[in-house]
Amino acid sequence: xxxxxxxxxxxxxxxxxxxxxxxxxxxxxxxxxxxxxxxxxxxxxxxxxxxxxxxxxxxxxxxxxxxxxxxxxxxxxxxxxxxxxxxxxxxxxxxxxxxxxxxxxxxxxxxxxxxxxxxxxxxxxxxxxxxxxxxxxxxxxxxxxxxxxxxxxxxxxxxxxxxxxxxxxxxxxxxxxxxxxxxxxxxxxxxxxxxxxxxxxxxxxxxxxxxxxxxxxxxxxxxxxxxxxxxxxxxxxxxxxxxxxxxxxxxxxxxxxxxxxxxxxxxxxxxxxxxxxxxxxxxxxxxxxxxxxxxxxxxxxxxxxxxxxxxxxxxxxxxxxxxxxxxxxxxxxxxxxxxxxxxxxxxxxxxxxxxxxxxxxxxxxxxxxxxxxxxxxxxxxxxxxxxxxxxxxxxxxxxxxxxxxxxxxxxxxxxxxxxxxxxxxxxxxxxxxxxxxxxxxxxxxxxxxxxxxxxxxxxxxxxxxxxxxxxxxxxxxxxxxxx
Length: 483
Hints:
Blueprint: E1 6-16, E2 22-32, E3 36-40, H1 47-55, E4 62-67, E5 73-76, H2 89-94, H3 104-114, H4 130-142, E6 148-152, H5 160-172, E7 176-180, H6 184-188, E8 193-197, E9 204-208, H7 211-247, H8 253-270, E10 295-306, E11 309-320, E12 324-328, H9 335-344, E13 350-352, E14 358-361, H10 374-379, H11 387-396, H12 413-427, E15 431-435, H13 446-454, E16 459-463, H14 467-470, E17 477-480
Parallel strand pairs: 3-7, 3-8, 5-6, 6-7, 12-16, 12-17, 14-15, 15-16
Antiparallel strand pairs: 1-2, 1-4, 8-9, 10-11, 10-13
């Protein structure tokens, strides 16, 4: 297919979920075939909605969406749906096709090799780690050999080796690709341009160049608009002062004063609406539970998984107040399983002391009740119910008056992450257990979250594959499950 041919075109497309929740307002843009594009926008702006419009899962309220004839589209979503978690690997891939495929086994083997994953075809999807599931999602998109590959946060849960492998694949990918990601270095390696969804205006701007070029261009545009408006403000003030001076003179001077006021009004109209930048969450602290025991956590052995076989290893880990542990190792070795047994306090070899409140951040947000409102979810973790405090904390995490009464299940993945952090603040835990807390989170929030974790005074166990994030947090001990 020629590179200059249009693959997708949006013509004045509008879409809203309700009167209050507008996503797109007469949006127009086009994507060339074989281009590699980043889709940017704040958490909750509607990036995944655009993917659903392209794939045909939902229809626009108005406007038209042109898709090139015979364009085969594959959409790898952020997470595997719960109803597919009990499927075997074989049945998971069979669902990718509308009809039964009889030579499926070699196709599965081929795409699993592309994503660098060894997975027995009879293994249940739920038994794979988060990083392995991310690879399965990519493989499920590739197995239909698409002309347009849509990837929603593909680096979530991937270890460094997985991210490196995915990056190399996308650099050499010969077809059209659209990616949502908050990993700037990953995006910069292969992107040709950016389409930016503005959460405030519900419009899209299209840019050429890599991720950093676009971020700098946006910042320059904002500064230029601010300087222009500052000059207008200066001239408006001068004209108003002159108008008042001439008005007091009386007679013909009142006509001059009127002209001055008209000129000031024209300048007010000429002022541009400065583009609102994505807001970052407010700096916050996670209060630590009082009256903690001397030893909060004791781990005497851990079970790792190597070649799909469990291996028990003796360790000596004792965490007290103000001690931070980093749990490391490749995808599938058993990090999340260890965190879950700790959070449930269900292991004889890894014990949490009595009466310690546990703040558990799961990578799939399954600790949140998706049928509950944000307000009820936050209220449920508070030791002492205080509505003013609840709303103040929620506001700091960009949970607006509209969002606070929404069901958790209606939020974007990034917004769910912010609700989970707000819960941790209101819970005041003695032990923090954090499994990939950067997943789905806007990059602007990450330094603020890292600062909060760095200053946390209780015991903390962290899993994260993002070196830049981990480097901002005080780590007292590292437990590498691979070694």
